[in-house]
Amino acid sequence: MVRLLKRFARCESPTDSKPAVDHFGRMVAEEWRTRGAKIEYLPQKREGNHLRITWPADRARWVGISARAGQILVLGHLDTVYSLGTIKKMPFRVRQGRAFGPGVFDMKGGLVIALFAVDALAHAGWRPRRQIVFLWTSDEETASKSSREVIEQEARRSAAVLVLEPAGGPRGQLKTRRKGTGTAELLITGRAAHAGLDPGAGVNAVHELALQAARLMRLNNPRRGITVNPTIAQGGTRSNVIPAEARLTIDLRAETVADMRRIERKLKMLRPILPGARVALEGGFSRPPLERRASAALFSQASKLAEQLGFSVGESLAGGGSDGNFTAALGVPTLDGLGAVGEGAHSPDEQVILSALPQRAALLAALLVTL
Ligand SMILES: [Zn+2]
Predict the structure, then answer these.
(1) Which pLDDT does position 59 carry in this prediction?
(2) Whether the predicted pLDDT of 268 surpasses 80
């Protein structure tokens, strides 16, 4: 597993480089081909190609009378947040039972786990009762614009969705809840004027921005898991001109669909505060929340299987979204955080705990064969 993880980490695949992601995709596809899987590339113009892997390829030969309707969808992504050349600054290395390198945790470790889960089933001669589709997408780290449709299409055909995103915390908790997330832009228009000669003729867009930011902060409700945070403020042109334009970027998160809708309604109702100012809102939530009711049954099955395998898994809430948010919103049972155990996702210290890799592969194999 470590050898494969090393090869995967060294083959850099930042979301914004289609050639790099495609190159990595071919490397991953080759691994599946040697395991007798059926590979389909879903070609994309700007993003990397998505990879759809069906295993076992020959369903008739594998699945007998116990076959169950509805496939199992396993979700993962090929892209990472690390730009090309990062591998020189943070080379793949193993130290004290941990592997470090760009993307080892989020989520090349998960891709390795999937391959070894399938190996385990093949060696044991265990036949899954459902068709299994592994969908490795290319743009998860930039909100899955090109992959959302195919993810939802596959999910509708699925009895369950297993997401190989990193586990929660170094104890390997599964993610049974995820906040819905999004970004909104507030575009503010005022009126320019000379700050010294005729300040009264102006409408100060930066002043309006500040008032709006203060008002937006009141939408926060940490107890309910609602966070609304102005994160980028831009405005003004010259030090002696009343600014005519300003722009505020707002990070949005909510734990339930009902709260997401409530925040969306409140954002739509935003009105200018200063006389003469105008405001327009763009964007909003891009991923709905993954609520626990979508994951509860799968989680209890997974924790029983883990116990039989000799370890335990807890559960946790993730403040960030994943592609599991899309599938859960469709009402398809979804369990997330089944990937590698480690810490430091998206940081220069990204790392995975090696002893957990075989455990996670065993847990995934057990889920694939019992669902
Ligand atoms: Zn990820």
Answers:
(1) 63
(2) yes
User: Backbone phi, then psi, for 351, in 5-degree steps?
Assistant: -150, 155
Tokens of 61: 């030969």
Tokens of 264: 């969306």
How many angstroms is it from 151 CA to the middle of ligand 1?
15
State the distance between the two ends of the chain, measured CA to CA, in whole angstroms. Answer: 25
* Cβ pair 129, 67 in contact under 8 A: yes
Range of the domain at 332: 2-178+290-370
What CATH number does residue 268 fall under?
3.30.70.360
pLDDT value at position 57?
Answer: 73
The closest alpha carbon to 234, from 201, 270, 210, belongs to 210
Q: Please give the distance, rounded to the nearest whole angstrom, from the Cα atom of residue 141 to the centre of ligand 1.
A: 6
Single residue among 272, 287, 302 that ends a domain in this structure:
287
Q: For residue 112, report the distance from its CA to the centre of ligand 1, in Å.
A: 14
Distance 110 CA to ligand 1 centre (A): 9
User: Could you tell me if 197 and 295 lie in one domain?
Assistant: no
The rounded Å distance from CA 248 to ligand 1 centre is: 27
pLDDT, tens digit, 9 for 90 and up, residues 27-55: 999 999 999 999 999 999 999 999 999 99
239 CA from centroid of ligand 1 (Å): 42
In the predicted model, is pLDDT for residue 56 greater than 90? Answer: no
Total domains, the chain? 2
Q: 166 CA distance to ligand 1 centroid (A)?
A: 7
243: enclosing H helix or E strand? none
Report pLDDT digits (tens) over 291-306.
999 999 999 999 999 9
Which residues lie near ion ligand 1 (Cβ < 5 Å)?
Answer: 106-107, 165
User: What distance in angstroms lies between residue 252's CA and the mean position of ligand 1's atoms?
Assistant: 19
Q: Residue 181: which of 326, 51, 45 has the closest Cα?
A: 326
For residue 277, the CA-to-ligand 1 centroid distance in Å is: 40
Distance from chain centroid for Cα 306: 24
Ligand 1 centroid vs 139 CA: distance in angstroms? 10
| Full-model pTM | 0.89
